Amino acid sequence: MTARGEAESQTGAVVTRFAPSPTGALHAGHALAAIESHDRARAAGGRWLLRIEDIDGGRSRPEHVAGILTDLKWLGLHWDGEVLFQSARMALYRAALDRLRGMGLVYPCFCTRADIAREVAASASAPHGVDGVVYPGTCRAIPADVAAARLGEPHAWRIDMAKAVDRVGPLDWVDGLAGRVRADPLAQGDVVLARKDAGTSYHLAVTVDDAAQGVTHVVRGIDLFAATHVHRLLQALLDLPVPAWRHHPLLLGPDGQRLAKRNGAPTLAALRDAGVEGKAFADDLRQGRLPIGFALANA
Ligand code: GLU
Q1: Which residue(s) pair with 245 in the sheet?
Q2: What is the DSSP string of 229-243?
Q3: Which residue of 40, 53, 228 sits with most ligand 1 atoms within 8 Å of its CB, as the best mutation to test the pocket?
Q4: Residue ranges of the domains in the chain?
Q5: What is the DSSP letter of 298?
Q6: Which residues touch 201 (CB under 8 Å, ≥6 apart)?
Q7: 107 and 130 in contact (C-beta within 8 Å)?
Q8: What is the pLDDT of residue 108?
Q9: Does residue 217 have its Cβ closer than 6 Å to ligand 1?
């Protein structure tokens, strides 16, 4: 934890963050997530941090980072301190992975997407988790010496979830809307902690950074509720402080689907270009005055 993070937790001040991935332009759904986290901190006289989740070197773009900063200012949301870029923090994620490897809780996975799809198609059930279909565990069965000899091949690192859960025992967390929740990381399966192409994963990077930034309240959309089972477990394994969470409802478009580029959600940049006033737009979202056909939903 940084010195600043420690100071904040000692004084009990609320610290929240907005953590967009710069892989596209922001739309109203992102605006809502930014406002929810921003207002939670400001209502408590706390701090609101901005973290750019750019671990995906292939899809992250500087122009989207610039767009995010412009959009937030347009909405009247001003972050505290420096913007944190995950791409600059890979060594920290590697160190966390090394710790978990030292505990014997991770294994290399050589499967391609096609391998996993084939394996899942051949099995009777295909449970889904936060990352899509739950990994069937194929590479967990590879003997350690055989896996070690194959490390020159492209591989991800996965957590052995059953072993990890055994190590930490029962866990729970407190959600501002759902109340006390029993963590069930096992249902998420052996999630990836270091992607083949990225050297870390969303789960590991978020967990390390929320602790490092002294985040006391993780405010984000309910689409990430399932991820919290995994993050709570990683906090326990890595001896990190445990924040509170608040998973807010999502904005749905006129087609009843979550807003996304693919269903034609207008970007904040397009609204701005059309002459919409950002602060008024933010206030409308705050007060539930949604564009026609839009709805908020816990789905
Ligand atoms: N970077 C994630 C996203 O854009 C959000 C991460 C989080 O809030 O935990 O969906």
Answers
A1: 175, 218
A2: HHHHHHHHHTT----
A3: 53
A4: 15-87+250-299
A5: -
A6: 55, 191, 192, 193, 194, 195
A7: no
A8: 98
A9: no
Residue 299: the pLDDT is 60
Q: What are residue 225's phi and psi, to 5 degrees?
A: -55, -45
Distance, in Å, from the CA atom of 156 to the CA atom of 135, rounded to the nearest integer, reads 12
What are the 10-residue block averages of pLDDT along the chain, 299 residues in total?
Answer: 43 89 94 97 97 95 97 98 98 98 98 94 90 95 96 98 98 95 97 95 98 98 96 98 96 83 82 95 92 77
C-beta separation of 183 from 173 below 8 A: yes
Residue 261 annotated as catalytic: yes
159: left (phi over 0), alpha (psi -120 to 50) or beta: beta
Whether 224 is in the pocket of ligand 1, judged by its Cβ within 6 Å, is: yes
Distance from Cα 202 to the centre of ligand 1, integer Å: 8
At 12 the pLDDT is 62
The CA–CA distances, whole Å, from 16 to 7, 116, 205, 246 equal 15, 36, 16, 10
Distance of CA 236 to the CA centre of its chain: 17
73, 163, 196, 261: the catalytic one is 261
Asked if the 15-87+250-299 domain carries CATH number 3.20.20.370, the reply is: no
Degrees to nearest 5, angle at CA 194 with 188 and 200: 115
Tokens 């789960």 belong to which residue? Answer: 203
Give the position, in ligand 1's atom list, of the atom nearest the Cα of 53: 1
